[in-house]
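The instructor's notes for this session suggest beginning with a concrete chain rather than abstract definitions. Hand out the sequence below and ask the class to guess, before any prediction is shown, which regions might be ordered.
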Amino acid sequence: MTVSLSPLLAQAARPSPPPATPDAVDNAFNALAPYLGQISFGGLAGFATGFALKKVGRVALVIFGLLFITLQLLAYFGVVEVNWLRIQSYADPLLRRDALQGFWNGLVGILTNNLPFAGAFIPGFLLGLRFG
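After discussion, reveal the predicted structure:
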């Protein structure tokens, strides 16, 4: 069995290619490099906040549901009498679109107050809500 070294020698004799010139990706990376820490921390903080808020919201909804069941049981057995029309009159203004929009804007304003990385926080927050 013979091994031919001529292809290896031919490959070694080839000149090496010139160094690559910076392309658009390198330029973008170099421009964003000072901000990558803020972007990554902001995204991570936003994701963690959204994830936690969704979990707390689920617990709050379970508690609300259990309270509703308890109230209905007490009403069924005649222990209490519930005026649902009055409760609905209290709840309706809180569930209108403008009230919910104001709540959302207030929540985002509180969570991003004085944050230099708010631009990365919001997408991370929404992803945390989505995957939490």
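Then share the key points. Residues 37-131 form one domain. The first helix runs from residue 6 to 13.
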